[in-house]
Structure formats: C-alpha cells, structure tokens
Specification:
A four-stranded parallel β-sheet has the order 2-1-3-4, sandwiched between helices. A two-stranded antiparallel sheet has the order 5-6. It has helices spanning 25-41, 60-69, 89-108, 122-127, 136-155; strands spanning 16-21, 49-54, 75-83, 112-119, 129-131, 134-135. The protein is globular. 46% of the residues lie in helices and 22% in strands. α3 (89-108) links the parallel β3 and β4 (112-119). With 157 residues, the chain is α/β, with parallel strands linked by helices.
C-alpha cells in the first residue's frame, strides 16, 4: 500500500501568530480580517491567536524569526502589501521578504505562510484583498492550517 499524507484544515487547539505590516494598511487590514475569519471558522480559539504589527513588509522576516524562536506557534501567517512604484524598491523588498520568510520556515520547520500581496498596482492589490480575486489573507491562513496539521501527522510517523 502506498503511504499518502495530506493535512486537514482543523484548527482546534492550535496556536497561530499573525504578522501584519502597517504599510498599505487599508489593504493589510482586509488580509487580517480574511485570515482571522478562516482561522476562527476552523475552531482556532481567540486565546490561541496573537497579532503582531510591523511598519512594513521588509520588517516581517525578522519578527517571524523572533516568533518562531519562541517555539509556541503551530504556524505564522505573514500579511502585507507591496505595491510597485516608480523605483526598483519594489523588486528589492519583495525578493528579500520572500527569501526571508522561506528561510524562517526552513530553519524552524514550521509553516510561515506568505500572505503578502505583491502587485503592479493598487487595483490588483484591492482585487486580492477580499474582492474579485478572493482574499490572500484567508488563503494564507488556510495554508497554515493545512501545513500545521500535516506537520503534526508527519511527526507521528
Ligand atoms: N513596505 C510595504 O509593506 N509595502 C510597500 O509597497 C512598500 N513600498 O513600496 O515602499 C514598503 N516599504 C517600506 C518597507 O517595507 C520598510 O518598512 C522600510 O523600507 C523601512 O525599513
């Protein structure tokens, strides 16, 4: 028989940290709302949720690392919005943040989900923050649940 594993979406008894950047707050607040909606609908208790705010997306990886070091969270959900401007700043921030988040996940073997919208313009960001293209915060929270459950399952084999 082939052994096959996939994570469930249940959040009962799991602790999550939500890391939210204030830059483009009117987008990131919608991502936070979507993520909380997902987690609470999957039975994560309020007492098991921690929200941490940082100035911008660039600051997310170091705080994700700080939170991961505590070894108390089943997952960390990073929420932000990086929107292209007239300078190459966008390229540097998005690449650095993406690499930083991946590094923390690999270093600590916990899900550190990238719920950071990276778009060419404000319209695309709005579309991904609870309108036409769904809510990337909700999706990141769902991925965190699936990955946290998968980690628990794989810990048992
Ligand atoms: N931070 C963002 O989260 N989104 C952006 O679109 C953005 N832009 O375009 O500049 C941004 N810049 C701030 C950056 O994340 C840091 O907070 C800043 O560079 C100080 O370290």
């Amino acid at each position: 028989m082939i052994a096959s594993y996939a994570g469930k979406l249940s959040g009962k008894g799991m602790r999550f940290a939500l890391l939210v950047s204030r830059f483009n707050e009117f987008i990131t607040s919608q991502l936070l709302e979507g993520a909380l909606d997902c987690l609470q609908r999957q039975d994560v208790a309020e007492a098991d949720l921690t929200i941490v705010r940082v100035p911008g997306a660039f600051e997310i990886p170091v705080i994700a690392q700080k939170l991961a070091e505590k070894n108390i969270y089943h997952g960390i959900i990073c929420l932000g919005a990086v929107i292209r401007g007239d300078t190459p700043h966008f390229e540097y921030i998005s690449a650095t943040v993406t690499r930083g988040i991946a590094r923390v996940a690999l270093k600590f073997s916990i899900p550190v989900e990238n719920g950071i919208i990276m778009t060419d313009n404000l319209q695309q960001a709005i579309e991904r923050a609870g309108t036409k293209a769904g809510n990337k915060g909700f999706a990141a929270a769902q991925n965190a649940l699936e990955m946290a459950n998968l980690m628990q399952t794989l810990n048992k084999i």
